[in-house]
Amino acid sequence: MEAQVRALLLLLVLTPSTAEKNLTGTVGGSITLPEPVLELGFIIYGTKTVAIVVDGKMKIVEKMYQNKLLWSDRTGCFTITDLQKNDSGIYAVDRKESGVSTAYKLSVFDSVSAPTVNRLGSDSCVLLCEVVNAEETTLLWYKDDEVVKQNSSAPSLSLTVHEQDYKSSYRCVAANPAENKSEPVNVEETCGPTYTGRKQEETEDRSRVIGIVVSIVSVVVIAIVGIMIKKRYHNQKPTAAQGPENSNRRPVH
Ligand SMILES: *[C@@H]1O[C@H](CO)[C@@H](O)[C@H](O)[C@H]1NC(C)=O
Ligand SMILES: *[C@@H]1O[C@H](CO)[C@@H](O)[C@H](O)[C@H]1NC(C)=O
Ligand SMILES: *[C@@H]1O[C@H](CO)[C@@H](O)[C@H](O)[C@H]1NC(C)=O
Ligand SMILES: *[C@@H]1O[C@H](CO)[C@@H](O)[C@H](O)[C@H]1NC(C)=O
After folding, report:
1. CB–CB of 91/102 below 8 Å?
2. For the chain, what percentages of helix, strand and coil (3-state, to nearest 5) are there?
3. Is the shortest distance between the CB of 152 and ligand 3 below 6 Å?
4. 3-state secondary structure of 75
5. Cβ(22) to ligand 1 under 6 A?
């Protein structure tokens, strides 16, 4: 008898800590509770019964779940759709068919907004990552897939990159427990003034060379054309003048 009571107490103590599983969702999205009910069972939100499954058919009890709760007769799983923040809370799936009850703690988060990255100033390479709606959002800076800086409560997070690291791959990630979005940064392009400077010089050099070549070619062409015109003019003049001479010469042939 005493042993039974002790076992019951132990069960009561253990139940809350082992049963609850965390689930996260995004506003507007949906979530499927993995515990299936195929023949007979309930889904409960807090203390309210939301729906019942009897003989392989679901009946919604709570009116507000009418267009919100789906149940698959194939898998036996419940899906809550069009999630809102007030859908957060404890859900329990009671399988009467097997006596199993599984509790889920659902937390619904706003969709994460994409972060933007800009360079601060022009002397050193300081990158500022910002997010519009920072509530419940953590900002993280990754260098080659490793977190180098993070802040869970700030709308912006700066990072200083040294020149020897310009070739590394950097990205800023905005994350909440439900999802995350990232923004890659090409540091060499954003912060490499020497690199862009050299590029520009090269381009300038090339256009200068092209300019010189074009000038030389123009001068040569003009010269050739000039010579040709002069030659023809020179040839024609004597022809006209020496006309009689030519006709005089004809008999020689
Ligand atoms: C569920 O989330 C809470 C914080 O909200 C955490 O303390 C707990 O360890 C999590 N449980 C599991 C099973 O991940
Ligand atoms: C939850 O929030 C949605 C929209 O924000 C609202 O339409 C709905 O009535 C709320 N439900 C409850 C139970 O407060
Ligand atoms: C995180 O951001 C908050 C708010 O801007 C600031 O007070 C705190 O010092 C920051 N923590 C770190 C580690 O940067
Ligand atoms: C971002 O989401 C992916 C899966 O969508 C996950 O594997 C990764 O751990 C998340 N990163 C952070 C920082 O939350």
Report:
1. no
2. 35, 35, 30
3. no
4. coil
5. yes
| Neighbour tally for 80: CB within 10 Å | 24
| Mean predicted confidence (pLDDT) in 204-208 | 66
| Burial 95-106, CB ≥16 within 10 A → b, else e | beeeeebbbbeb
Q: Are 112 and 28 in contact (CB under 8 A)?
A: no
- Confirm whether 157 is domain-assigned: yes
Nearest protein CA to atom 13 of ligand 4, as residue:
175
Q: Give this prediction's pTM.
A: 0.68
Handedness of CA 78, 82, 83, 87 (dihedral sign): negative
User: For residue 86, how far is its CA from the centre of ligand 2 (angstroms)?
Assistant: 6
- Contact 52 CB / ligand 3 (< 6 Å): no
Residue 212 resides in a domain: no
Stronger pLDDT, 62 or 211, i.e. the higher one: 62
In this prediction, residue 253 has a pLDDT band, given cuts at 50, 70 and 90, of very low
Evaluate if residue 210 carries a pLDDT over 90.
Answer: no
Residue nearest to atom 2 of ligand 1 (CA): 22
Summarize pLDDT for 232-249 with one digit per residue, the tens.
Answer: 777 765 554 444 444 444
Q: What is the CATH number of the domain that holds 76?
A: 2.60.40.10
Domain boundary among 94, 109, 124: 109
pLDDT digits (tens, 9 = 90+) for 80-96: 999 999 999 999 999 99
